[in-house]
Amino acid sequence: MALDKSEVEKIAHLARLHISAAEADEVTSRITDILALIDQMQSVDTDAVEPLAHPLEVVQRLRADEVTEENRRDELQTLAPEAQDGLYLVPQVLE
Predict the structure, then answer these.
(1) Hey, which residues does 4 pair with through a beta bridge?
(2) Which end of the chain is more exposed for a tag (fewer CB within 10 A), N or C?
(3) Which three-class secondary structure string do you get for the chain?
(4) What are the backbone angles phi and psi of residue 37, rounded to the nearest 5°?
């Protein structure tokens, strides 16, 4: 797929971009090259290629799920102005 200069100028106008005549030629050429590359990439047969979640074959090392701190909820709630049933009570913000 190739764009011509008038289409680039129309797109620039819709995007509210000012592109001079010299810039329009260069932008047209660059966009056409990009679209040609996309066409080339889409023509590659990828039926036998499995999708990847990550381009590198790496494995994430996981640590054991162990408790590292003691439960201090009751101690910390004694510092709060108001607490009830394990919850902090705060003034109502929304009506």
Answers:
(1) none
(2) C
(3) CCCCHHHHHHHHHHCCCCCCHHHHHHHHHHHHHHHHHHHHHHCCCCCCCCCCCCCCCCCCCCCCCCCCCCCCHHHHHCCCCCEECCEECCCCCCC
(4) -65, -40
pLDDT tens for 34-90 read 999 999 999 999 999 888 888 888 888 898 999 999 999 999 999 999 999 989 999
For 18-35, b/e burial (b = at least 16 CB within 10 A) is: ebeeeeeeebbeebeeee
pTM over 0.70: no
Q: How far is CA 9 from CA 25, 32, 36, 63, in A?
A: 10, 14, 20, 57
CB atoms within 10 A of CB 8: 22
Residue with token string 């106008």: 13
> Tokens standing for 72?
């201090």
